[in-house]
Amino acid sequence: MSWLQALKDTARSGLTVERQRLDPLVAVRAAVGLALLVGAALHFFGPAVAASSAFGAFQAALATFQRSWRTRPVLALASGASLAVTTFVGYLTGSHQILFVGLLALWTFLAGMAWAIGPTAGMIASSNVAIMLVTVTLPTSVSAAAGHAGMIMVGGIVQAALIVLFPVRRWGAQRDALADALAAEADYARRLRHDPVAPFDPEPLMAARSAAAITPRQARRRPAELHGARGLAERIRPVLASLADPALGVPAEGEERARVRELLAAAGTTLDAAARAVRHGEPVTMSPAALAVLALPKEGAVLTGPARRAESRLIALLRDVVETARGTGTTDAVGTEDRRNLKDEDRSAYVTARHAAVRAARRVARHPEHRADPDDHLHRPTVLELIPVALRLMRAELRRDSPVLRHALRVAAVASTGYVLGTALPLGHGYWVPMAAVMVMRPDFSQTYSRAVARFGGTLLGVALATGLVQLAHPGTELSAALAVVSAFLMFLLLRTGYAVSQVCVAAYVVFLLGMGGLQWTQTVPERVVLTLAGGLLAMLAYAVYPAWETPRLRTRLADWLVADVRYASAVLQRYADPAGAPADAVREALLATREARVAWKDALERAANEPVRHRGLSRAAAADAPHALAQVARVAMLMEAHLPARDTHPVPAAATLAKALRADVDAAARAVRERRAPRWDAFRAALEAWRAGETGAAAGEPTGDDKVVRKGAGLLLEALDELTDALDAERPRPKGDAGDAALTKP
């Protein structure tokens, strides 16, 4: 993609306004906290202290709007405390420009490295540095600086207290994440009725897993309907796929396929009902038709063999999902009639699934602060426990090829250079140059450039509107404070609609806030527009000079995904090879690694799409075909996982040979992908062919049971791996006019 096209795309993205669900009650609560603090500070201390306290309350409230699973009071307190400390230390060094510039470079470097912890930490750290550049100019003495820092901290305390005293939809984010996961599986079940190999995006399940990570204190307070449903959803997904797939499930047409379609429709209806109940905290309303389908027939069962066992597992899991969504837990009584209707060979699978949920529910009831089940909730470190974790994450990014390290170095250089440049210009308020740069800079190209355009456009419009209002109304101190609060409320309300919209409100907020301190608009508006433009241009230039392009790393991301997928398949095969001795959590950990690698590839591809970089090794066709092949690898592994044998089942010796061959091939295959060569699967192919020929000791004749699952699964796995090889084979003939070696860009 050319630079001109990249600039057009990023500018369009930055100025886009999205339709999002608004949270007026949350915005009102944040604005009320700001108004209380500003009013009290004005009454007791005057405009200067009111301005700094307003910045503290504003930043604390803004932190609570970030997409984080941390509790909102914790975010408000952490933001207020960190801004108070940086303001006080900044004032102590502010009279010595060289010392302050050095400290500013250190602050911004650490703020840039905070992106290693996560987007929320990076956003809060960057905002703190930017706001600190304003607040350090307000005090006039060390004691006054301490007072300003104290008021900033009070701003965080006030916002946290309001959240505790006036909660809006407790556990709402966790409810939404779990409900989205259940709804995604409901949609997946309905799509499987018409497309037995329909793809599934695991991101809702990953979000639900992140939301399930809670502290011990949260575990004691969590609503009952949030206990265990995510783990059930995780187990339902492979069962749905195994029922629908014609290779390892039932034939594509016939009476069995009709029964499967009925089950899938009933599963979709049931999961949707559970999702609504979890999201809104309401009772589950079940469809009578779905209940009828999910009742196991006493006689004349349509499905047999593995499909019959999958049917039993699905019905048991769906009943447990409904009970969990009701918040009633799992009881032994439910499902007794269904167990009586099962044949002896099917009852074991049903009872195992039921009893696992029963044991999990009982452990939660006895010890809610501990993890009751690997799929129930995960431990989230407290703020103090997070410190060593954060240090390890930041230390891991201290390498030359790290995008986070490059971002930290860029933002530190730009902030210090922008501060020196701003103070040298005869405009006043030179801190607006580094402030604008710090606020727009992000670790990737697209966000940095789109935010730079959005910030300048939003600032221009916001100061124009605020200036017009000031000229018409000539507000005094109290009215300026009120207008600042209204601007902040609009920003909180419209925050998720787009960065440009929020910057319109922020620009007006700053004009009114500085006007509250006696500054005329003619002293602030023209300078801010010019200096904001300078800061944005400086940020864009820095990325062009010292970039962290994602396009050259696409093959590495693809290789990482390949390794994760193959290790997942290997872990599944190892379970067939040694049902009693294989680690219980090996398959689960491999599956999670596969999902993380897939999301990393998807994010990298989205970032690379807008980069003005010539393609280096991965054509547009390969970028489309290779992910499809890898998705098939993971799907086949998931289908085999759905039929995993019990611990007391006889092993499949050939599965150990296949798993070993996969592990032997994957490292060389990943290296080949990184080096722009096609991967090969000679060891795995030879092991499978030897088994098919009877050379590995497999019984003669048509395989049955677990042998059949492994043999069919291994064949499908080899087909998917060969598809990946074809997608990455640079020597294969290409049709005339193929994009081939063209740059990986948008059309």
Write a brief caption for the model.
This protein is mainly α. The chain has 29 helices and two strands.
Tally of domains:
3
Unreliable parts: 329-376, 695-700, 731-747
Number of helices: 29
Largest pleated sheet: 2 strands, parallel
- What's the Cα radius of gyration? 29 Å
The number of distinct β-strands equals 2
Specify the overall morphology.
Answer: globular
**How much of the polypeptide forms β-strand, as a percent range?**
under 5%
How far apart are the termini?
A: 9 Å
- Fraction of residues in helix: over 70%
Coarse structural class: mainly alpha
What number is the mean pLDDT?
A: 83
Strand order of the largest sheet: 1-2
Subcellular location: Membrane
Domain Integral membrane protein YccS N-terminal: 84-189
GO cellular component, one term: membrane
Membrane topology: Multi-pass membrane protein
